[in-house]
């Protein structure tokens, strides 16, 4: 069923007598397959937009495209640069802001600006008992009570169903430019990206397509971007070539949406590690990995592997246990996702906390049961 | 401010509890002498004082764990304490509680420039985190005014901000991982040197939970490369309304200053008398600081000044040297001290939408007349985080109560216009009884349910954050 108001949402959850599969725009079928009645959040519309305060409050079902268009009219944007999952996952549907927040979806700019969770100022949601709860607000600094907004961001609809979110937005920069090099090994690329990110030049993107480009992005006032690109070319990024404007933007859309993996039948892992560990992890996985895209200076790894067996889960997670980090199986056949834990299994005490939190927020266990393995 | 009555059954067991703590801690790490305990009877909200039953100063996570196991078994309330600089009473003890101070956990454990993080023990002071990396060109961004003294543990507990968080975010945006001792003594790790959570974002939940979910003993923090330079401009206006409009216009353009600080006339006059910083005689002034290379700074400041000129400023004062920059900041940095010289004061930190600044400042002026108490406003205007300083005389009977009533009215006003009770100081005891203004019983119940998970016995800092009547059933 499609729900168009918070009141109806609360009623629907309260009245549910079985598991619910929470759906935003339906672009992002991730996690262990959930059996249940589909509950589609169609609460749309802008409650408040104050460009001068960088604040936007919207219904959780509002399409991202509408939000981006609205912001663009005022010269603003979402800083966390959410990806369009349709490209990677081959899905249709319309990406929504609620989906982006619920999955904490953040693109290349996360390394500099922060994640979706960092730009979500407040949320209203319906918990598993059908109670309407709000947390946070619409102001940029707010430490009043516990930060349940962070908990909701990235909880994939397993703790509550978002009805409304408040976001901090960002002014669009005057210009962007990229510095690009070809032919670097992952280890060489990560060292270059690290040097750029450790410079005072406010790099807003640092990525490497294994076997292809290494790219660094700068955004801001025209003069500043010109100065910074030159300073980097004169320093740690000697030999990198300048790409400007729309051509630069296209490079980052490709990384954001993991476009190189589009239309293939490989399984895809999303891995978060310390950037410097990325080359070591690639070495450890060896030929299992058919393609890889590194973002966030190496800290975010998109790995394509054959969709067979456990998709390399044991080896991958074994390495991660030594290094720190986590791996999520974002794309695989439903049978694979039913057999392989999609989310990183947590250490026992953390898993216990997760289970108990789930039980408090969703006492009947009806919201996306099993999706996160809890 | 009401606090729970100390439990007689705990006080009666004091000797046993103290001797058990001595068994697991170094000899000088357990304090139960009445005179020495005076040091722990309050934090920076010094209007409220109560010596704890005892204080412990463990030197390792293992010792913190041992302390928690004993307190958990004995059912003793534990009040975690960083450096005791909380303005909200976050570290205020009760007579039956153990103060758990983390000041002796102050080591740097790991510095990694290639991956841009530092791992420290949580008792380390905020400024000394930057101190550990600045020679190599890095810094830790959150900069609360108390950064010389305040501990990372307290910053995490309160999700502290500072003047520069307009650009760099607050603690939660710069915290990557923690080691934490749970109420029952179990040690857990959340997050690490990688970004974001693989499952539920427990790190985001712990940050800002005011020491009620666990005792953080280690933290992994994001460090950033220092900008090439920074420079402020001072702009004076003949009304608060115009200054507020100027802030909004600057933010809209896409220039991201590192700080936009606002002072109103009472505050300007007080600091002028105190420091002689040479501020213009005006109703409101902004200090706006930008970063970058010399050319980038010139570019940004010229754009900011062009916007300001459209608002008929009474003065635009640019800095041509580090000395002049220091002089521009002098009054702002001395503002609290200057107000403190006039009288005792209470510092609020409600946050409001930037667009509501003129209205809220006007209403604060009216409340000031109504209560007969002077107010100075000095705050982080870029993000709407206000700091009204209400002057009162603590020695005049009834004046503290009057001041608190006025403070409550201002905070209710902040919520009414779409803001919140506290932007960076935390709820503690100070705003505890106002939580119902911002949140419904269901909202608060959901938050308390989280504490039930982490601390089922409610022994960690139990009398804070939630109104006492609301938490009574859970506190037992």
Task: Describe the model.
The complex is a heterodimer of chains A (374) and B (476). With 374 residues, chain A is α+β, with helices and mostly antiparallel strands. Chain A has 3 domains: 2-171, Uridine Diphospho-n-acetylenolpyruvylglucosamine Reductase, domain 3; 175-256, Alpha-Beta Plaits; 259-339, Alpha-Beta Plaits. Chain A is built from 13 helices and 18 strands. In chain A, strand 12 (205-209) and strand 13 form a beta hairpin. The longest helix of chain A is centred in the C-terminal third of the chain and has 14 residues, at 348-361. Chain B is built from 19 helices and 18 strands. Chain B has a 7-stranded antiparallel beta sheet with strand order 15-12-14-13-17-18-16, with helices on both faces. A 5-stranded antiparallel beta sheet of chain B has the order 5-6-10-8-9. Chain B has a 4-stranded mixed beta sheet with strand order 1-2-4-3, with helices on one face. Classes of the chains: A alpha+beta (374), B alpha+beta (476).
Produce the secondary structure layout.
The complex is a heterodimer of chains A (374) and B (476).
Chain A: E1 2-3, H1 6-15, E2 20-23, E3 37-41, E4 46-50, E5 55-59, H2 64-73, E6 76-77, H3 85-89, H4 97-102, H5 116-119, E7 120-127, E8 132-136, H6 148-152, E9 160-168, E10 170-171, E11 175-182, H7 186-197, E12 205-209, E13 213-220, H8 222-234, E14 241-244, H9 245-256, E15 267-272, H10 278-285, E16 291-295, E17 300-305, H11 313-323, E18 326-331, H12 334-339, H13 348-361
Chain B: H1 8-11, H2 14-24, E1 30-31, H3 34-37, E2 54-56, H4 61-74, E3 78-81, E4 98-101, E5 108-112, E6 117-121, H5 126-133, E7 138-139, H6 152-158, H7 165-168, H8 171-174, E8 175-181, E9 187-191, H9 202-206, E10 215-222, E11 224-225, E12 230-237, H10 240-253, E13 259-264, H11 265-275, E14 284-291, H12 294-309, E15 315-318, H13 322-333, H14 335-342, E16 344-347, H15 357-371, E17 375-380, E18 388-392, H16 399-416, H17 435-438, H18 441-454, H19 468-475
Parallel strand pairs in B: 2-4, 3-4
Antiparallel strand pairs in B: 1-2, 5-6, 6-10, 7-11, 8-9, 8-10, 12-14, 12-15, 13-14, 13-17, 16-18, 17-18
Helix pairs in contact in B: 2-4, 10-15, 11-14, 15-16
């Amino acid at each position: 069923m499609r729900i168009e108001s918070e009141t109806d949402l609360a009623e629907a959850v309260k009245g549910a007598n079985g598991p619910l599969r929470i759906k935003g725009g339906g672009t992002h079928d991730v996690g262990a397959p959930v059996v249940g009645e589909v509950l589609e959040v169609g609460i749309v519309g802008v409650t408040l937009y104050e460009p001068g305060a960088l604040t936007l409050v919207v219904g959780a079902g509002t399409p991202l495209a509408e939000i981006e268009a609205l912001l663009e009219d005022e010269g603003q944007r979402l800083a966390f640069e959410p990806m369009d999952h349709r490209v990677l996952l081959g899905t249709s549907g319309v990406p929504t802001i609620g989906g982006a927040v619920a999955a904490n979806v953040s693109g290349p700019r996360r390394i500099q600006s922060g994640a979706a969770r960092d730009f979500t100022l407040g949320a209203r949601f319906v918990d598993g008992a059908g109670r309407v709860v709000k947390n946070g607000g619409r102001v940029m600094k707010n430490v009043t009570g516990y930060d349940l907004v962070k908990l909701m961001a990235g909880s994939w609809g397993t703790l509550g169903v978002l009805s409304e979110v408040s976001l901090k937005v960002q002014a669009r920069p005057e210009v962007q430019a990229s510095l690009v090099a070809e032919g670097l090994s992952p280890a060489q690329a990560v060292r270059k990206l690290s040097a750029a990110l450790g410079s005072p030049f406010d790099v807003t993107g640092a990525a490497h397509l294994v076997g292809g480009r290494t790219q660094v992005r700068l955004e801001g006032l025209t003069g500043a971007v010109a100065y910074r690109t030159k300073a980097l070319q004169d320093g740690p990024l000697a030999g990198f070539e300048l790409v400007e404007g729309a051509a630069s933007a296209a490079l980052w859309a490709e990384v954001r949406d993991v476009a190189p993996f589009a239309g293939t039948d490989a399984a895809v892992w999303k891995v978060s590690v310390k950037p410097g560990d990325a080359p070591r992890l690639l070495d450890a996985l060896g030929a299992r990995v058919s393609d890889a895209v590194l973002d966030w200076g190496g800290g975010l790894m998109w790995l394509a592997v054959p969709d067979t067996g456990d998709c390399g889960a044991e080896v991958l997670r074994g390495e991660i246990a030594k290094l720190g980090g986590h791996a999520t199986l974002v794309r695989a056949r439903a049978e694979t996702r039913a057999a392989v834990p999609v989310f990183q299994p947590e250490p026992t005490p953390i898993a216990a906390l997760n289970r108990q939190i789930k039980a408090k927020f969703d006492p009947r266990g009806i919201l996306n049961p099993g999706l996160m393995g809890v | 401010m009401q606090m729970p009555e100390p439990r007689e059954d705990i006080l009666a067991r004091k000797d046993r509890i103290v001797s058990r703590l001595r068994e697991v801690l170094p000899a000088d790490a357990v304090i139960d002498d009445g005179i020495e305990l005076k040091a722990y009877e309050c934090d920076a909200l010094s209007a409220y004082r109560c010596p704890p039953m005892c204080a412990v100063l463990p030197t390792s996570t293992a010792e913190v764990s041992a302390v928690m196991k004993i307190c958990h078994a004995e059912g003793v309330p534990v009040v975690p304490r960083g450096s005791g600089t909380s303005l909200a009473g976050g570290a205020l003890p009760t007579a039956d509680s153990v103060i758990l101070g983390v000041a002796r956990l102050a080591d740097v454990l790991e510095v990694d420039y290639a991956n841009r993080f530092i791992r420290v023990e949580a008792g380390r002071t905020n400024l000394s985190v930057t101190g550990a990396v600045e020679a190599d060109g890095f810094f830790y961004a959150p900069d609360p005014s108390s950064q010389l003294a305040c501990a990372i543990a307290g910053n995490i507990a309160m999700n502290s901000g500072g003047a520069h968080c307009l650009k760099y975010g607050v603690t939660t945006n710069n915290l990557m991982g923690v080691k934490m001792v749970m109420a029952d003594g179990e040690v857990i790790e959340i997050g690490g040197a990688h970004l974001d959570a693989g499952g539920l974002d427990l790190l985001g939940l712990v940050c800002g939970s005011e020491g009620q979910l666990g005792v953080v003993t280690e933290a992994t923090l994001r460090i950033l490369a220092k900008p090439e330079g920074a420079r402020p401009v001072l702009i004076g206006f003949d009304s608060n309304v115009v200054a507020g409009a100027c802030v909004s216009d600057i933010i809209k353009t896409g220039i991201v200053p590192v700080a936009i600080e606002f002072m109103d006339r009472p505050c300007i006059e007080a600091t002028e008398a105190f420091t002689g910083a040479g501020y213009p005689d005006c109703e409101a002034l902004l200090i706006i600081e930008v970063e970058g290379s010399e050319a980038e700074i010139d570019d940004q400041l010229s754009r900011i000044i062009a916007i300001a000129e459209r608002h008929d400023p009474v003065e635009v004062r640019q800095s041509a040297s580090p000395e002049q920059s220091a002089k521009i900041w002098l009054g702002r940095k001395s503002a609290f001290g200057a107000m403190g010289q006039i009288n005792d004061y209470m510092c609020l930190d409600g946050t409001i939408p930037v667009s509501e600044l003129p209205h809220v400042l006007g209403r604060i002026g009216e409340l000031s007349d109504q209560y007969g108490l002077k107010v100075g406003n000095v705050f982080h205007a870029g993000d709407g985080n206000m700091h009204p300083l209400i002057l009162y005389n603590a020695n005049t009977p009834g004046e503290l109560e009057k001041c608190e009533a006025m403070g409550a009215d201002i905070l209710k006003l902040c919520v009414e216009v779409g803001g919140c009770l506290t932007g960076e100081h935390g709820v503690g005891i100070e705003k505890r009884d106002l939580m119902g203004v911002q949140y419904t019983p269901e909202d608060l119940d959901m938050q308390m349910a989280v504490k039930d998970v982490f601390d089922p016995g409610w022994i960690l800092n139990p009398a804070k954050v939630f109104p006492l009547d609301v938490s009574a059933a859970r506190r037992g």
